[in-house]
Write a structure and sequence with these properties.
Chain lengths: ~130, ~280
């Protein structure tokens, strides 16, 4: 009997927890704040990539450009450029803007390949 | 003996769970937002966004676009926020180039008619671009048509980082003699610097380097007080200190600047005024 009550109590807590999370996430509307750059909508991210491309065109600093791209796509900066190109074409970016983004894409790609080729391979001794 | 305690323990468990769930949703497991707009960014992310807008503005010189991008942050007074960020970066000895870019951006926001010379692009641009249709696989690439000479496309040869030079031209020189401001006696003694280009237009974002005979060099930029003039900058004079200033990257140093003595105040102590120095491009 005691065991049954304990199990029932735990189940009640779990149901309450689930309900609390649902209420907290869905029903209590709080103003959105403290969002990160990576949470921006696609068109804003595309514009951000364009800004990075414009900066890169004048300073050719690929390390900084990659670091800035990681702010919106920490795992794969190259993917954020591809998305920006697709979206840029859909949104009517000018040919010059698309070219700037393409040049950034090429540079980031080349930079990644250089890093891969420069990484020493690990040899396992027999 | 049978104990009759009813089912209140279930309600108790439910309430405890509910409270824990609400606390978790507000603290440890907050909602992860996606597809937000720039106005919802955190303060740090907004600062990074502003720097990006400023640097893009230096690269393309499009004030309208910079203002539109900045407007996405939905700040009541964007110019003031940008100025505050630039001043804070300079005070913390942060990135000099970014602080200058922000100063120029602030000037562009305050003075829509302002135009700057975009920084030269180090990347060779192709003559024409034909955007490719996005591939079905989801990958994309923009095809670059080579220029009429058929020279090879852009190769990203490492080059030295460009120093932002929004205003190109001759070195700045002091115009006339410094003007002493004693009447009315200013509350604080300032070295007021106004930088004009060859056509007499105020120039924001110009580097001002100031040093004392006793040592120490400080750097600041014009444009942080656009309400006075986009080409204005000032520095708080220390009594009896003698300063040397240099405007721009290649300006000639102007030596022997110090707070002007404007008689004595009510307590019979020396009262110092301000000094206004105008620099122009010949």
């Amino acid at each position: 009997m005691q065991n049954k009550r304990q199990i029932g109590f735990m189940i009640a807590i779990l149901i309450g927890l689930a309900a609390g999370l649902v209420i907290g996430w869905l029903l209590i509307k709080t103003p959105i704040r403290n969002a990160s750059l990576s949470s921006l909508r696609g068109d804003y991210q595309a514009d951000y990539v364009l800004m990075v491309a414009e900066k890169f065109a004048v300073d050719q600093d690929i390390l900084t450009a990659t670091a800035l791209l990681r702010d919106i796509a920490s795992s794969d900066p190259a993917a954020s450029i591809k998305n920006a190109l697709i979206l840029g074409q859909q949104l009517g970016y000018s040919p010059r803007e698309l070219q700037l983004i393409t040049l950034l894409e090429t540079a980031v790609g080349a930079s990644s390949s250089n890093l891969i080729s420069a990484t020493p391979s690990v040899e396992v001794a027999p | 003996m049978n104990e009759k305690r009813g089912s209140w323990y279930l309600l108790t468990g439910l309430i405890i769970g509910l409270i824990i769930g609400l606390i978790l949703s507000a603290t440890a497991l907050p909602v992860q937002y996606i597809n937000t707009d720039p106005s919802t960014l955190s303060d740090d992310a907004k600062a990074a966004y502003r720097i990006m807008v400023a640097q893009a503005y230096l690269a393309e010189g499009d004030g309208g676009r910079a203002r539109a991008r900045l407007a996405l942050l939905q700040e009541v007074n964007p110019a003031e926020v940008v100025i505050a960020q630039a001043q804070s970066m300079l005070a913390e000895s942060g990135n000099d180039a970014s602080a200058r870019a922000l100063a120029l951006l602030a000037a562009a926001v305050s003075e829509p008619s302002l135009s700057i010379t975009p920084l030269p692009m180090l990347t060779p641009m192709a003559a024409e671009v034909i955007p490719a249709t996005p591939a079905a696989s989801g990958t994309s690439s923009a095809e670059i048509t080579q220029g009429p000479t058929g020279t090879p496309g852009a190769t990203n040869t490492p080059r030295p980082t460009a120093t932002p030079q929004p205003t190109l031209g001759s070195p700045y020189v002091m115009s006339g003699e410094p003007e002493t401001i004693c009447d009315p006696l200013p509350a604080v003694s300032l070295l007021q610097i106004i930088v004009l280009d060859a056509s007499g237009q105020a120039v924001p974002g110009v580097r001002v380097e100031i040093s004392q005979a006793s040592g120490g060099i400080e750097t600041f930029y014009t444009g942080l007080y656009p309400e006075v003039s986009p080409g204005y900058a000032d520095y708080l004079f220390l009594p009896d200190a003698v300063y040397t200033i240099r405007i721009g990257e290649s300006g000639q140093p102007v030596t022997g600047l110090s707070a002007p003595l404007c008689g004595n105040d009510a307590e019979n102590k020396p009262a110092y005024g301000s000094l206004r120095v105008i620099f122009t491009q010949p």
